[in-house]
Design goal:
209 residues; mainly alpha; Rossmann fold; three-stranded mixed sheet; 5 strands
Length: 209
Amino acid sequence: MQLTINCLFFEKTVDVKALQEKEHLSLEEAARKLRYQFFEEILQAEALDKVVVGHHADDQIETILMRLVRGSTGSGFSGMRPVREMRFGQLIRPFLEESKTDILAYAHEHNLPYCVDETNRSPLYTRNRFRENIIPLLRKENPRLYEHFSRFSSENQSDMDFLAELAQQKFTELGEVSENHAKLSVTGIKKFGLSFTTALNSFTIKIPV
């Protein structure tokens, strides 16, 4: 495929299976980890501050469903965020509310070439099984599936952000940070609900000591 825009191209060969075995990850998780490490390397090496990726509404639904089935945290159930902070910049997902069907229709209408990963339909991968078997069934049950999941993700992210901000404020009352550790008052947090307690514990874990 020939590009008609002036842009730089970066590539890197990585050993996904080696990382998978070393850290006991799924093949998908290992590939994702290496991909984001590569993004970080390019941001730093090229003095850039933004990475734009093509995740769309179908990807978001798949992500939320997989996390609901496998288990996750409150923020994890929100799916992917439109903007994610990285060490050397931000990762941006501008197409999260656009369906794959609409994106492909636009590409065809404007004669835009694109590539399709040949593994996208393989039943060996969890995401593909959700994509091929579960999501079509859900669309039949609710034609407004994309709208529903978009609202669910947005509302849950807002709730998690509020809890995180509240946890940060309350930590000054209930927590203490010393030279090499952080601690919370168990008696103090017992009066709060599980969601807030989880957010407070999460904030404590993230504190650099």
